[in-house]
Design goal:
The chain has 364 residues and is mostly helical. The chain is built from 16 helices and 2 strands. α6 packs antiparallel against α7 and α7 packs parallel to α9.
């Protein structure tokens, strides 16, 4: 989507894969505003990062950082909140709590074994509340001291989780002005640009990421997606194949390039060529619903209906709230004379399309 595949490791595991969640840009800044309140000193240029906060003797904050590094986000949360009761004007305390709240979102995603964009409604609501709480802490801290590049990076990821790619773009751009060698920052800026349909700018961001981190499979794959967004399909195909080639000797492969290449070949009316790439994607990630969906579509176009049925049924099993999958499976049943099953899927398709169908979770 977020691993976007969400929009990655980090942070969107969120990396969150921030999932967590790259789709169409929808501004929510009115719900979760963030401003760097104090003006920067006149001696600090737009490309100069604020000096780090010096906090010698802030033992509770040191304890909280140590707890966070151990993976004990809950302990870190408790320590910092207790500290802020007596030090409400501590920018470092607020910034640290903002980081902790974001880490708690990541931990929940890992514990549930799901990517953030695919959470059910109750978990998604909790995730959004946590992201807003994280932003509130960064806003509180910014009243007393300008946030660092690391702070702005998490601010941007919070906005990604809220589906606000315009603000994510804004703060990633500011962060990269201070730390232009941050390849991960360029990657997520590219994801934000892509989600805003600003494909030319996304291409530039992914290319910059690749200059800093040659061989980055996700960046090359997303470069292909950005080319495809501009209908530069030959360049997209080349990027996907390059990303696949880079994984030849890698044990743990990323299914993204295989899925995206298969999808583009299907769009070009080449299901026979798409099939082996989609089979490889499923071998790499058997629980990836999109791979089963596309393979089912390829088999349907090749009139291999039993195989299409098997793949689409698996896709439905993995993403039961996707109306699109039920709509695809129904005619496959009907063409095989499975009337009752077809009718059930048509009805399910209509019901989900008109109510609470889950949008497709983008890959980071």
């Amino acid at each position: 989507m977020i691993e976007l595949r969400l929009l990655g490791g980090l942070v969107f595991s969120l990396a969150l894969s921030a999932s967590a969640a790259f789709g169409q840009a929808t501004s929510t800044s009115s719900q979760a505003p963030f401003q760097v309140a104090p003006p920067a000193p006149t001696s600090m240029s737009e490309t100069s990062e604020p000096a780090s906060l010096a906090t010698p003797g802030d033992t509770p904050l040191e304890e909280a950082r140590a707890a966070l590094e151990r993976g004990s986000a809950n302990d870190a949360d408790r320590i910092v909140r207790r500290y802020l009761v007596n030090h409400p004007d501590s920018p470092e305390g607020h910034f640290l709590l903002g980081h902790i709240l974001f880490r708690e979102i990541q931990n929940e995603a890992h514990e549930k074994g799901v990517q953030v964009p695919g959470l059910n409604p109750s978990r998604a609501k909790h995730r959004e509340e946590q992201a807003k709480a994280s932003l509130a802490e960064f806003t509180a801290g910014a009243k007393f001291h300008a946030p660092s590049a690391a702070d702005l990076k998490v601010v941007a990821f919070d906005f990604v989780l809220l589906g606000d790619y315009v603000d994510a773009d804004k703060w990633l751009t500011r962060m990269l002005a201070w730390t232009p060698a941050d390849s991960e920052g360029w990657y997520y800026l590219g994801r934000a640009k892509y989600s805003e349909n600003r494909f030319t700018e996304a291409i530039s961001a992914f290319q910059q990421c690749l200059k800093l981190d040659p061989g980055n499979v996700k960046a090359e794959d997303n470069l292909g997606l950005s080319y495809a967004g501009l209908d530069r399909n030959e360049e997209a195909l080349a990027a996907y194949k390059t990303a696949i080639l880079w994984q030849t000797r890698v044990t743990q492969k990323n299914p993204g390039p295989y899925i995206d290449l298969g999808s583009l070949l299907l769009d070009q009316g080449r299901p026979q060529e798409a099939t082996p790439y989609l089979l490889q994607a499923i071998e790499i990630a058997p629980l990836e619903s999109k791979a089963h969906e596309l393979l089912g579509k390829a088999y349907a176009r090749l009139e291999e209906l039993p195989k299409a049925q098997t793949e689409l049924e698996k896709a439905v099993e993995l993403s039961p709230q996707s109306s699109n999958l039920h709509c695809m499976l129904a005619p496959v049943y009907r063409q095989q004379g499975l009337t009752e099953k077809a009718q059930f899927e048509f009805d399910r398709c209509a019901a989900l399309a008109g109510s609470h169908s889950t949008p497709e979770a983008p890959r980071p």
